Amino acid sequence: MQTYRGKSVFGGVAVGKICVYQKGEQTVKRTKIENAEQEKARFNAAVQESIRQLGELYEKAVKEVGEANAAIFEIHQIMLEDEDYLDAVQNIIDTQKVNAEYAVAVTGDNFAQMFAAMEDEYMRGRAADVKDISERIVRVLSGGAGQGIHTDEPVIILADDLAPSETVQLEKDKVLSFVTVHGSVNSHTAILARTMSIPALIGTDVALDETVDGKFAVVDGTNGVLYVEPDEETLETMRRRQREEQEKKELLQTLKGRETVTLDGKKIRLYANIGNSKDLASVIHNDAAGIGLFRSEFLYLEKETFPTEEEQFQVYKQVAETMAGKPVIIRTLDIGADKQCDYFELKKEENPAMGCRAIRICLTRPEIFKTQLRALFRASAYGNLQIMYPMITSVWEVEAIAKIVEEVKTELTAQNLQFGDPKQGIMIETPAAVMVSRELAKKVDFFSIGTNDLTQYTLAVDRQNPELDAFYDPHHPAVLAMIRMVVENAHAEGIWAGICGELGADLSLTKEFLKMGVDELSVSPGRVLPIRKVIVESSCS
Ligand code: PEP
Ligand code: MG
């Protein structure tokens, strides 16, 4: 068995033969021409033909992967009308008196290099697009046939890289998975792969030759592994996983687009938890009605220094806009305890889980808190963004937050910066917050119960300590009684209460949560549909 690691673009398991995809790259020769006008006319005709081909691809992609993902082919059409690009080609033909193929290839390389050198990640990603359109024109000019996979049985496609046009041209029923040596997670190809729901890896260090071509293999899209000629044990494990994935997929089909309403008519907010904006695709794919927990501290953990207001604003705005009016609950930074960030320069503590973490940092270092609040308030003008504060224990903390929020709003107003009026809620993840939840409910718009921490603080069991797994019991009657109490107090004050800790995704408790009156469950995206299934088959009474 040979094992190769890559980066996962889409999860799932594929089992089958490998087909190495050779691009059939064309070697473009430089030849002298006599008549530049004639050569430019040939070039213009090839551009028109390429635009026509892209139109066809667009239509095909709309049917297969939806309008938003098909848009790349419209973008390619627009790129083919770009004056700078067209002028550059014609200029080479004119000045160097060379064939159109060569002029296009050189221009494609130049533009791709220019894009690749740009600061902006999105623009860097366009380098592949400009190469893609140039290769298309060269193919048309040299009368080349369209590429594709020619196989009778479904295969695992192994390629150096795949351009969006190549990905979409793959006959879906002939492709089990694709694995590439290069490519980026943000590329349109990756986005298309996710939408096509086939296991996919990029950045896989594997040679594209006869050592793997035609061999039997397994792609573990979830863990980013390609097994060539897997041993019995691996194959069996993977086949089991594949069956489980298949069951999940079938569930997806029937439950997508359905409202999450109980048999007795209560609509449950079924949201998803995310760690960064890259998780959005999965939220949409799994049809969550909103984001119930965006762990914003990951923005901080990814960096070497504090993310600026502008950096944060862009991320929050993007998430709010992408969710298009659906709720996006962003939790303010929950740094501390297990989520340590060097540049915060937190003092070493004996007991970090009970130390300076989350809202305690924000209230003692308001300059950090204010930067985040400014970004959040500004982004709230672009969608249904809501703010949630973690690790609350007392009413005075909520009052102190409200004061800082007022200062932020005053500053933004003075600076003429636009902001919205986001709903603000708190996490209930300490026993103290549970006990004063009736008072807290008077001050906020919603509660979200963090059962991961609530379990650790209620049972006095460190959630990070694997030795104590047997003692860390979120099903403990004390934890369940606390959830019940929080929901009752929330309702008594007319606000909603949900669960965003891992327990919210525990299918064995879903019915019990409904009976308790829980209004919202926020879970990892892949859990949304299995939970919807239980909810639509249950009653609250
Ligand atoms: C929780 O404590 O349940 C929670 C959702 O927050 P985190 O797991 O990020 O601490
Ligand atoms: Mg927590």
UniProtKB/TrEMBL annotation:
Keyword Metal-binding tagged: yes
Active site: H188 (tele-phosphohistidine intermediate), C500 (proton donor)
InterPro entries named among the record's database cross-references: PEP-util_enz_mobile_dom, PEP-utilizing_PTS_enzyme, PEP_util_C, PEP_util_CS, Phosphohistidine_dom_sf, PTS_EI, PTS_EI-like, PTS_EIN
Parts of the chain that traverse the membrane: none
Occurrences of domain Phosphotransferase system enzyme I N-terminal (ranges): 5-126
Subcellular location, principal: cytoplasm
Cofactor(s) this protein cannot do without: Mg(2+)
Subcellular location: Cytoplasm
Annotated binding of Mg(2+), by residue: E429, D453
Residues bound to phosphoenolpyruvate: R295, R331, N452, D453, R463
GO cellular component: cytoplasm
Source organism, top-level taxon: Bacteria
Keyword match Transport: yes
One of the record's GO molecular function terms: kinase activity
GO biological process: phosphoenolpyruvate-dependent sugar phosphotransferase system
Pfam families xref list: PEP-utilisers_N (PF05524), PEP-utilizers (PF00391), PEP-utilizers_C (PF02896)
PEP-utilising enzyme mobile domain segment(s): 152-224
NCBIfam families, sorted: PTS_I_fam
Family membership: Belongs to the PEP-utilizing enzyme family.
Function as written in the Swiss-Prot or TrEMBL entry: General (non sugar-specific) component of the phosphoenolpyruvate-dependent sugar phosphotransferase system (sugar PTS). This major carbohydrate active-transport system catalyzes the phosphorylation of incoming sugar substrates concomitantly with their translocation across the cell membrane. Enzyme I transfers the phosphoryl group from phosphoenolpyruvate (PEP) to the phosphoryl carrier protein (HPr).
Protein name: Phosphoenolpyruvate-protein phosphotransferase
